[in-house]
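Figure 3 (text version): structure tokens given as input.
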């Protein structure tokens, strides 16, 4: 498997503290911050602190501790924005774009947590 990680990508720079972010949550292995161009009233990006490019990279190479931490961080963010159905929220959507067809712009794994309004079709028909 070949995953070339570009350590100059914008999320790597956020993790190193070189550029600011609107932080929502930080855990041992993960960080969450608000998207700079929100597509919903709540739009938070959750990223692992490790150098992983895509979901498949993370799934194949991350430790169990990183996988568990990241999964729980995503759930926690949904709760924090008040969207978790199990806590009375009205729901949310997770998106993890990967590669060219996924139209991934930033080559550091991130899960979009979108909430705060009805989100419509999962994917635009075309
Ligand atoms: P993707 O197409 O899945 O790679 O999405 C990348 C996301 O990163 C987009 O929704 C951007 O608005 C967001 N983004 C880019 N730069 C920043 C930044 N400096 N802080 C927060 N979000 C960002």
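Below: residues designed for each position.
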């Amino acid at each position: 498997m070949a995953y070339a990680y570009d350590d100059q990508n914008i999320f790597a720079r956020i993790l190193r503290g070189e550029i600011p972010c609107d932080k929502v949550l930080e855990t041992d292995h993960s960080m969450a911050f608000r998207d700079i161009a929100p597509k919903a009233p709540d739009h938070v990006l959750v990223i692992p602190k490790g150098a992983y490019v895509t979901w498949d990279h993370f799934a194949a190479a991350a430790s169990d501790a990183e996988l568990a931490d990241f999964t729980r961080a995503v759930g926690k963010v949904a709760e924090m924005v008040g969207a978790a159905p199990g806590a009375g929220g009205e729901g949310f959507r997770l998106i993890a774009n990967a590669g060219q067809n996924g139209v991934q712009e930033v080559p550091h794994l991130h899960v979009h947590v979108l909430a705060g309004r009805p989100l419509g079709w999962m994917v635009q028909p075309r």
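The chain has one domain: 10-115.
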